[in-house]
Amino acid sequence: MQRQKPKRSGKPGPRPKTSNGKPGAANNKQHHRPRPEYNKSKLAANELEIRALQDQYKEIDAQAIKKFAQFPLSQKTQKALAEAKYVNPTPVQLESIGPALQGKDVLGAAVTGSGKTLAFLIPVLEHLFINKWSRTDGVGAIIISPTRELAYQIFETLKKIGKHHDFSAGLIIGGKNLKFERTRMDQCNILICTPGRLLQHMDENPLFNTSSMEILVLDEADRCLDMGFQKTLNSIIENFPPQRQTLLFSATQTNTVQDLARLNLVDPVYVGYGGQTAAASTATKEGGGQTTAVLAVPELLQQSYVVLNLEDKITMLWSFIKNHLKQKIIVFVSSCKQAKYLYEIFCKLRPGCPLLALYGTLHQDRRIAIYEDFLRKSHVVMFSTDVASRGLDFPAVNWVVQLDCPEDVSQYIHRAGRSARNKTRGECLLVLTPSEEEYMIGALKEQLNLNIHCVQIDPKKLFSPRVKIEAFLAQFPELRATAQRAFLSYIKSVFLMRNKRLFNVLSLDLDAYAQSLGLAVTPRVPFLAKFLWRQKQQQQQQGQGQEEGPAGTRQNTFGGDASSNGDADTDDDDDDLIKVKRRDHDVEGGALDLQLDDTKDESESEELLVVPKREKLVTKASLAKKALKKNLQVNSKLKFNEEGETVADDRSQMKALSTRQQRQQKDKNKDDDGGINLMLSKTLLSEEDQYDKLRFRELVKKRHKLQREKLRKKTEAAQEESEEEEEEEEANNDRESADDANSDSEGSVDLSWLPDPDKVYKKQSSADHQSEAKPAPSSSSDDDDQDDAEGSDDEPAYKKSKITNKMTLMDTEAIVANLLGS
Ligand SMILES: Nc1ncnc2c1ncn2[C@@H]1O[C@H](COP(=O)(O)OP(=O)(O)OP(=O)(O)O)[C@@H](O)[C@H]1O
């Protein structure tokens, strides 16, 4: 029977579409010129199809159905399923699609990789189709997934099988553009989201309205409902209308009756809780309030385990990878820092195959890129945290190596389920330390009825990369720091595990483990030291309390081992014990009453909470504020001259003036709570700049003046020298000409009245020299230079005329000499 939904009034019918069946730009044209007959007939056809489908819902017989085509599904869904080559439904699809189409609540549990995604996506699409949902009707279905990658994968599958429908869908996960999502969310009919992001929109986005929502899906429901998401999910559910259909799916359904009550499940249909499947144990519906589905692992999954000391894990992993270079492998570790370190050091060691690392602290785009890279590659090793352990459908994974022990059987199943999906073969290797073996193998055998066999490693086949790792760590300090963080995060993960029978931090050989990571010195583990110290204190108190009574207890509260106390107090991380990022993905806050695991990154890292410290945080800003309040003076610089008097430095005065102005300004604004006044600083800077420029110009002027002075003095000295020489020569010449006149007086002509040619030429050559000292025009030759010197327009007029006059005399002399000679 289909659940009665409140009647939705005024809902518009299907919108006109383009020829390819999709609304688009061409639609605008159709809006201008509607074709009423076409729309009418289409509406009528839709109506007929819907009625026919609804009639068939009552008669669905899962036993008789062999193909999807036999299900009463819309033509659009059938077409897309056929195109994606989904022909025969899987058992979980067979069992759950029928009740879901009938509007019943479903609790579906099926082995990993058995097609649960389609088991809920098909009913979602059909529900909206039957109810003639259109874009303007708002959110009709919400699908919640615990991790971003899984939400992305569901979104991709929805795109594939819903491509012929007209519904709009949105992927709402952390690490994406919040503003973009905000403006579009109200236009989406199907939302696929992670809990934290959904609640954020519910709290902050006034446009987001879930009152029209009719179908809710929780994929990996046990994870969504467990303590980690408990409060977030409670807040989300409060915003949903109580009248709705709810579908819960997971490979490991361990829901309590309270969980189901929280979700308002009405007479749900249990799928996978009793039927016989491969490797299944019996289903239990316990009176203790827990509803446990059949726990199973894929039939074609080969499982084995190996027992190793913690310090031998890296050697084993290295040898394993070297022996499986052409395989697709996922290596699960318990913390992001370990995944990061293993990836970095193995990249340096170069095993000979592609390496990837997927963990929650990576940027979202990077995570999606790595996820897609791993999907595509046929042989690759990916180091991952449990962010990839649930739901991700990587094709053809040959090996899953659980390098760190899983928290419980459920986690083992999900990790192992990344291999041997959808009737393919795969292998899983569980690595256990001797202290973990008994409990874990016992639990697996008991809950899964599993016959897992132990593998003995041939020591001859092990290659230890330790020497190389140590060399790399010595060479790269950053890598060493990553190794130290990986070391600490592993110890912390073991320390914080709730199951103390399985995880015993005191059984670990820390020195040996540190050395195996390549660390020469074992890093200090402050939280462990503090824990041990407190334990010791408690024991002492108990002992003394028994002997002395309550007074003795009080006396010893702050006593104890000095060294361990120092350890705890001096280290910044010492409050790690109480300040743990929580696996509880509560966004509302609240006190922690449990030690929670900070190493699981799942995906909602933005929601991790920190329990407030007892002491007030000392930040740089608070220190700066304190200093400002004390009115501390900035250091000043004084200059002294040779006599020991202070010299006024106008530049520093200017600065002092600026600072004074700034301080005056600040004093005026008494209620200013510290920080920098940007506007004031800007004006001061521009003033200082102007001043600097002025000063620079003055300095340049001074220098030029000095240079000119020097040049002038030099020329004057040169002129004086040449005048003296001239006078001397003149006197000599006078004496010589008098002698000549005496000797040639009878047969020659007296030319003493003519000017001295030597003098004339000398002056001319000195003029030439002067012109050569001037910078030459860039394009002129040497000859041109001479021409310029003789007849340049730049030559002062008086110089030119002087030379010309002298030249005329010289010419006259030459002409006369020629005439007389002839
Ligand atoms: N009817 C079908 N026919 C063929 N292949 C299918 C069918 N249904 C699902 N598959 C394929 O099986 C694979 C596993 O499907 P899916 O991821 O839905 O499994 P799951 O049960 O959700 O796994 P997990 O428990 O790990 O989340 C996918 O590659 C999917 O395309």
Architecture of the domain at 42-275 in CATH?
3-Layer(aba) Sandwich
- How many individual helices? 28
Tally of strands:
19
Q: State which percent range the strand residues make up.
A: 5-15%
Overall pLDDT confidence: 76
Which structural class fits the helix and strand makeup? alpha/beta
CATH class of the domain at 42-275: Alpha Beta
- Gyration radius over CA: 46 Å
Ligands in the model, by name, code or SMILES, are: adenosine-5'-triphosphate
If you consult CATH, what is the topology of the domain at 42-275? Rossmann fold
Specify the overall morphology: elongated
What is the helical fraction, as a range of percent? 40-55%
**Main sheet, how many strands, which sense, barrel?**
7 strands, parallel
Could you give the order of strands across the largest sheet? 3-4-2-5-6-1-8
CATH superfamily of the domain at 42-275, please?
P-loop containing nucleotide triphosphate hydrolases
Distance between the termini: 147 Å
Question: What are the low-pLDDT stretches, counting only 5+ consecutive residues below 50?
Answer: 1-33, 275-288, 549-614, 738-748, 769-805
Please, could you describe this protein's structure?
- 48% of the residues lie in helices and 9% in strands.
- With 822 residues, the protein is an alpha/beta fold.
- Among the domains are: 42-275, P-loop containing nucleotide triphosphate hydrolases (Rossmann fold, 3-Layer(aba) Sandwich); 301-516, P-loop containing nucleotide triphosphate hydrolases (Rossmann fold), CATH 3.40.50.300.
- Strands 3-4-2-5-6-1-8 form a 7-stranded parallel β-sheet.
- β15 (399-402), α15 and β16 (426-432) form a beta-alpha-beta unit.
- α8 packs across α10 (230-238) and α17 (466-475) crosses α18 (477-496).
- Residues 313-463 form the Helicase C-terminal domain.
- Residues 1-42, 538-575, 643-676, 707-807 are annotated as: Disordered.
